[in-house]
Amino acid sequence: MYTTQPKKMLIINILEILKNYTDINHRLSQKQIMDILERDYNMKVDRKAVKRNLLNLIDSGHYLEYEETTRTKKNGDEETMYSGWYLVREFDDAELRLLIDSLLFSKHIPYNQCKELIGKLEGLSNIYFKSKVAYIRSLPENLPENKQLFLTIEILDEAISENCQVSFKYNEYDTDKKMHPRKNSEGEERVYIVNPYQMAATNGRYYLICNLEGKEGVGNYRLDRITDIKKLEAKVKNKKQAKGVVSRLDLPRHMAENIYMFGGESVRACFRAKRYIINDILDWFGRDVVFSNADDIEVTASIRVSEQAMFYWAMQYGEHIEIFEPESLRERVYEAAKTITKKYGKLDENVE
User: Fold this and answer.
1) If you compute the radius of gyration of the chain from its CA atoms, what whole number of angstroms results?
2) β-bridge mates for residue 230, sequence order
3) pLDDT tens string 306-352
4) 155, 195, 258, 282: which has the highest count of C-beta atoms within 10 A?
5) Residue 310 sits in the same domain as residue 237
6) Angle at 162 between CA 157 and CA 166, to 5 degrees
7) Domain that holds residue 132
8) What is the DSSP code (8-state) at residue 183?
9) Burial class of residue 323 (count of CB atoms within 10 Å of its CB; 0-12, 13-18, 19+)
10) Closest to 14 measured CA to CA, from 93, 86, 91, 88
11) Can you tell me the distance from the alpha carbon of 321 to that of 275, in angstroms, rounded to the nearest whole number?
């Protein structure tokens, strides 16, 4: 900066210096603050002015830490000295890194918006943090590009708080790698009218938990697939009227029962599993799993879960589990296994 700034800007500039250059491992003396003020802000001030404004920042509610020592002057008077100033931040570096990594691994935030959010999070720390996480500048460009995502979240948040229905178009990808709205039986773009209850994130994606108007039960729709959303004047259907929904939606339970967010009726599933996948079972289903009949090799597990979701989970872990109940699910896994065996059996014959 080349122009001389008014004195009233001094306290603002000191706060900016503390934000940019300090943390618990990087502290500044009053002399160092004076040097930066002169170098970067063209402001030449004395120690007393710096000290006075630092104490004013504390009085105004900013959390500053410093070291306090006492020295004896030549005339015998004692003087309190302040040094080692730094700004205590709302988020430490480990917390910011965790938030940034969660954005990097998100599967629903568009590329440009993800980079913008990461930039804002970086701004909550200092120059030293930015240099340590330079790798985050290389974001994968295969993230979704639904630029309406944040608008969708905003409208849904408003609609849920006001108990209003919403309408939207729901999209699917095709071979051109672009989203296309689902169509109705007449070939027209289908408009969904739903009763929104909750938004939830799972498996790196964001979902709307709702009831489709005219249908029973609860459905889950990915927010990154929703476009053209509108808040309606009609009020939402009471949760008691939606089959499978209690008067107060138990979100943790719903998420545990719908591990792939397929929705539908939940069933009591019982299966025998190898003990070495207990960690995986708890990761997927939470602590509502009931274990029994354990030995050194296997354990029986029982859990309430969406039958559709349990089928896909069983296919994923089929080598390590055996489904007992419900019988319909066991039969479905059996038929799928036969189909897979037939396909790969033909491959083996060709190889030989």
Assistant:
1) 30
2) 167
3) 888 899 899 999 999 999 999 999 999 999 999 988 888 765 555 44
4) 195
5) no
6) 65
7) 93-137
8) B
9) buried
10) 86
11) 10
CA dist 107 and 90 (Å) reads 27
Q: Which residue has the tokens 């319909």?
A: 328
Number of neighbours of residue 21 by Cβ within 10 angstroms? 20
pTM reported for the whole predicted model? 0.58
Q: Which residues of 249-274 are buried (b: 16+ CB within 10 A; e: fewer)?
A: eeeeebbbbbbbbebbebbebbbebe
Instruction: Tokens 């229905």: give the residue.
Output: 165
131 shares its domain with 153: no
Enclosing H/E stretch for 206: strand 205-212
* 292 and 341, same domain (yes or no): yes
Strands (E), 236-275: 266-274
Contact 218/254 with Cβ under 8 angstroms?
A: yes
3-class SS of residue 6: coil
Quick: pLDDT tens for 243-258. Answer: 555 445 566 666 566 6
Q: What is the pLDDT of residues 67-93, one digit of tens each?
A: 888 877 777 777 778 889 999 988 888
**28 DSSP 8-state letter:** B
Kindly indicate the confidence band of residue 56, based on its pLDDT and cuts at 50, 70 and 90: very high
Same domain for 69 and 112, yes or no, is: no
